[in-house]
Amino acid sequence: MGATTPSGPTTKPRLPYLRSYHRLLRWPSTTYVSLTINVISHGKYPTPFAGISVFYGKSFELCKKNCCVEGLISWFCELGQPKRLDYGFIGYQVPPMPRATRSARKRGTFRKRTEDNQMCAFDLLATVAGNIWLEKESSPTSSNTSNEKNGCAFVQKAWENEDKPVKIEPSFQESSDKRVLVSELVHQAGDQNFSYRESPLPQNDVHSGLASVLTTECSEVFVAEKLVNGENNNEMGSFTSNVDLGFSGYRDSGNCKLDCENKLIIKDDLHKTGKVPIGIGADMCSLEDPVVCDGRPPALVSSDSSVKVPLCGDHIPCSSFPAIRDDVKIVSRDDDENSSGCTHPSTIAKSSRPVSRIADRRIRKILASKYWKVSSKLKEETLSNVDGDLKPIFRNRKGYYKRQRSQMNIPFKKRKIFQRSSVSNSDRWISYGGNSHSTEKGINGDDLGSCLKMHGASGTSSSLVGQHTSIQSRDSYVKLRIKSFRVPELLIEMSETATVGSLKRAVMEAVTSILGGGLRVGVLLQGKKVRDDNKTLQQTGIAHDYPLDALGFTLEPNPAQNPPPLCPRDSSCMLPCDTPQPLTRYPLDSTVVHQGDSHASPELHAANLGTFIESDHDSAPSPTDTSVDKSTTDSKALVAVSAMDVDELAVVPVHRKLKRSEMAQRRIRRPFSVTEVEALVQAVEKLGTGRWRDVKLRAFDNAKHRTYVDLKDKWKTLVHTARISPQQRRGEPVPQELLDRVLSAHAYWSQQQAKQQLKQQPETCLLL
DNA sequence: GTTAGGG
DNA sequence: CCCTAAC
């Protein structure tokens, strides 16, 4: 496939790095995430993959496991797009791979972890915001891209064959009369043939479709502080991942239940399409004419691709990576009031949540800003974006049928977050099903809406947003419609002096904590769990004429990878209880308690955002970490950071010992002693500045915790200290005699350096 | 991997 | 002490 157009390095300032994402929870290995690629543009990363696809508003289902950023990139490359991929999030950029130390490379652990981290970043977006925002960056070679990074682009014309360039145009439309292109990319299995078609559609609100809940104009890194579960601090109690998606009237008595209102939605007009196999969490789906547009801008597009996926990195196969469903249909947006049959989620979401009210009060008290409003809205609307992200778990294992669709429904700006709460981003009919052979249309159904709530083990109720499920039958066809999943309610308590940004981070972290836990879908019939996945809908009794209110869905922890040691009975009630909550404390005196368990460590406090690096020393980007003495202290600095073990996701003892390797930490501060200073001064006097490695070897070879960077830094501070008045100095006083030597040594070697440079200048001039 | 420098 | 860039 073609690849090419190596775009030159761009001089454009980089976007801020998305930091701290690696502190987010790790995801379970078998879950999938949905991603929507908004913009892919020239990347500045010298990835080994030359060609990159451009997908706009295209959503993917990715297996979290064995998936990484590099894999995504490479996958795009395989599609032969003539662009490079620059990846990042709304306003953020995924940090490049940190450097690995030799030992890490030897062990082969570094890369994997790094990739995990990067993928976490994707996860963050995909799960929470629902989008991966690939920032467009201008590059010398990008000629027909007029929009800058705050703009999104549409693919106006895509590859009909590999050789055709992709045309990118800014999508500035915000009004409904604008049009959005819906493109479809069909990828035939086996061969890499693509056919592309596009069709203009009226666009309602670009933003809503891809609403990224947590994105704001001022992009920030979102890291939560503490989550509060004001009401119940159950020990295990953190979030339960059990979500009941049941229809109204039904409640799962066992665990977490939800109040649900139901609405039935019928869509008749949808069926221009062909068949639709349906299956929830099922494996395969095949269909023939998956995409349906009822004339409204589709919110999300799904793509399929059983495209062969390259390995990510050295050790991580990403074959599962583009496990994309090919069967997603885009129907219409719900956010459109007029949209037929679609119930506004907000109306659905109203369920009684006593606890939440308390929380609301609390928060409201704290922040009266508009952002607050937004956050409070979380429980009702905002996070609905998650909607397609959690729900569909489609994979095409067989991959015999490959098809890909892309749609352009792209917000042209970073979505102002709360601007439009989401209501629904999208309505898509995803059809798939085992052996189903759909026939035609003919939809019947009643409106059913359901509200989902998620109850924390602690008793906190969480809301699952408007889930709209409509079951429709045509012939023997059952159609379910899940509008969106709502993020469980979060309780956050913050100081009044906390910044809005910190609030956002707190919300973000809370959300990701929950969603990162990994969920599976459970089906309930008449209140009973349907455990046999192999039964057909028909056998199970789910038919088009089946009483819809007897059918429900639950989101529960995925036991497959999460052996429930502590909760043998029903793991569904204890999802991420122990989820290693990213308990980050912020300098601001916010107090957030993550349901029941919080172990914010002082170090975390100090670390604040963005300073966490790979927990494994060897994987730390900074060489300084390589010398950290492993018998020493690392442990305490790292508590809560991404402690989640993939394999023990669902139920793990709350206080289980965290693996060291899982903890990202900042090294603890170790002030230099006078003795050390003396040794340093002496070495520098001898060796001069600029030879820190030698200094290290000479004077600190045995001090594993002192890296040459440390020494260099110390020297820097020593010089500074020596220059300021004694009154201004802090910490253990350094003898003046030493400081004097510092100054003189510094002066001497600076002079030497200057001389050296003068010497070299003529030489270079001569050379030139 | 080192070095330099900003934070 | 962290992070990044430059080499």
Automatic annotation (TrEMBL):
Q: Where is the Myb-like domain?
A: 664-719
What is the name of the protein in this document? Uncharacterized protein
Asked whether the UniProt record includes Nucleus among its keywords, one would answer: yes
Keywords carried by this UniProt record: DNA-binding, Nucleus, Transcription, Transcription regulation
- Lineage of the species this protein comes from: Eukaryota, Viridiplantae, Streptophyta, Embryophyta, Tracheophyta
Annotated signal peptide: none
Q: Where is this region: Disordered?
A: 334-354
This protein's GO CC annotations: nucleus
Ubiquitin-like domain: from which residue to which, for each copy?
A: 478-542
Question: Mind telling me which SUPFAM superfamilies this protein's record contains?
Answer: Homeodomain-like (SSF46689), Ubiquitin-like (SSF54236)
Q: Where is the composition biased (Polar residues)?
A: 339-354
| Cell location | Nucleus
| One GO molecular-function entry | telomeric DNA binding
Pfam families per UniProt: Myb_DNA-binding (PF00249), Ubiquitin_TPR1 (PF23603)
> Could you tell me which species this protein originates from?
Castanea mollissima
What the entry lists under InterPro entries is as follows: Homeodomain-like_sf (IPR009057), Myb_dom (IPR017930), SANT/Myb (IPR001005), TPR1-6-like_ubiquitin (IPR057625), TRP_plant (IPR031105), Ubiquitin-like_dom (IPR000626), Ubiquitin-like_domsf (IPR029071)
All copies of the HTH myb-type domain together span 664-723
